[in-house]
Amino acid sequence: KQRITVNRPSFKISYNDKKIKFNMGAGFGFTSFNLDDITLGKNYKRGYTNFFPAASFTYSYKSNHSLRLNYYGNTTQPTINQLQPLRNNADLFNQYKGNLNLKPSFSNSFSISHNGYNFLKDRWMYQSVNVNITGNSITNRQTFDRSTGITTTTPENTNGNANISLWSGIGFKSKKLDTRFNIGPNLNYS
Length: 190
Prior knowledge:
Layout: E1 2-7, E2 10-16, E3 20-37, E4 42-62, E5 65-76, H1 80-83, E6 94-96, E7 105-118, E8 123-135, E9 137-145, E10 150-158, E11 161-174, E12 179-183, E13 186-189
Parallel strand pairs: 6-10
Antiparallel strand pairs: 1-3, 2-3, 3-4, 4-5, 5-7, 7-8, 8-11, 9-10, 11-12, 11-13
């Protein structure tokens, strides 16, 4: 039996101009967990203070052309199954064990993007670079016991988790063929 209470006050500041749009803000999450293990008669209480920052900046340097910068931070709490899973007797050779010492994970996401469109020539281009770095990411560790044949999976916090992606494209319309062409290479690294 689990009860989670979350209070999340937040604030945001915005500025809009003809060429510049900017906003930034943050939320604070006060989370309390109350977990009752009815089978074992134990009670676990935990409390977290989380931070949710966000910011964006857009510069429209000419009509239908813009450069945008974004940042977003996000906290992810461990689930009840990761902390204290239900016991499963259906598969004795694959056991899942909870970890009451799990910490919340925090992700930092950054992106830079550019968009441009020439209405008269019907040409467009776009580029974006996205970076996501997660600290205390909740991942699964598996161990195999050769003597019993049992595989045990346990969630644990890890660092060094990153994802970087690049997507882009350029396109145009051929008036003679009445057809649009688009080339869009993408790269991803995890």
